Amino acid sequence: MAFADPHLQIPDRYIRAVGGSGVVVVGDGESLELPVVDMARLLDPEHREAEVALLGSACRSWGFFQLINHGVDEAVIQKMKDNTVQFFELPLEDKNTVAVRPGGIEGFGHHFRSSAGKLDWAENLMVETQPFQQRNLEFWPSKPPTFRDSIDKYAMEMWNLTTRLLRFMASDLGVEQETLLAAFRGKRQTFGLHRYPPCRHPEKVIGISPHSDGFGLTLLLQVNDTLGLQVSKDGRWHPVRPLPGAFIVNVGEILEVLTNGRYKSVFHRVAVDAERGRVTVVVFQDACINGLVKPLPELGETPQYRAIGKSEYFKGHTAEVLGQGERFIDTLKK
Ligand SMILES: O=C(O)CCC(=O)C(=O)O
Ligand SMILES: [Fe+2]
């Protein structure tokens, strides 16, 4: 595999003519930091109002924030981190026992390809974790032995965290909590575990090409402190400096549509480091209203997006017909 031997030439299918990790990033001094939302303050009646406003403004202006004091069981987080690292350290043949199949999404392998057919400098494991009946355990690694249990417990924690966040988002948006929760309840939850190996020429490759997330809400956990994630704001890439123990949360395209454009789903990408690998655990929470992607009725008096069926939406989102800087939901705008 290309990643294994640091002395090998970088294969052409990873090399980006333009748009490698070297492209303009804001300098250290001028870099804006992501907003930081404090769950302890959201839960404290004395600070709630101000913190809800901060959460709302983060979702409206950045589409991203860091979440501290989130209350997720630290032992469950640690197990998930350890098992993810142990899985990626397995020999390739072990990882390939859950290899992604042609045309499939779940499993281990390379999942992301730019429109020019170039590969991202990463290996990934994708598994669907909810609804329970839809779990394909054949794609859940049996090594390390505690991995399945770790995924199961982490899945539950992430759903609970999602419901906590949605309640405060509903409050910011001025909608009934239940209306927003109902759009997410019982829907798909997908895990994306990513490993970005170091690369001797990071400027020639990219860990994940620029994209905006297609589901409702994304909850990202950095397993180590290697930098890499960059968020687009005002036409420039801002490196995210993860706070110890924080989650990085971002608005997906479906949440943008549900809020009728109030919250923003923004482009982000991952740059690769020359010396250090990076591992992340990403959980995507899906949403829809009676099988449709459309604005919540309470917010959609004048809908900004036309309603579309779920399967048509996913076909559109995954099709490689969009140019750089375009999102599928922009094609739904009225
Ligand atoms: O690993 C990261 O930092 C970002 C991953 C990501 O953007 C994704 O999985 O959609
Ligand atoms: Fe993403």
UniProtKB/TrEMBL annotation:
Keyword terms of this UniProt record: Iron, Metal-binding, Oxidoreductase
InterPro entries: DIOX_N (IPR026992), IPNS-like_FE2OG_OXY (IPR044861), IPNS-like_sf (IPR027443), Oxoglu/Fe-dep_dioxygenase_dom (IPR005123), Plant_2OG-oxidoreductases (IPR050295)
GO molecular function list: metal ion binding; oxidoreductase activity
Domain Fe2OG dioxygenase: 187-287
Family statement: Belongs to the iron/ascorbate-dependent oxidoreductase family.
PANTHER family, sorted: OXOGLUTARATE/IRON-DEPENDENT DIOXYGENASE (PTHR47991)
Protein name: Fe2OG dioxygenase domain-containing protein
Organism: Oryza sativa subsp. indica
Organism taxonomic ancestry: Eukaryota, Viridiplantae, Streptophyta, Embryophyta, Tracheophyta
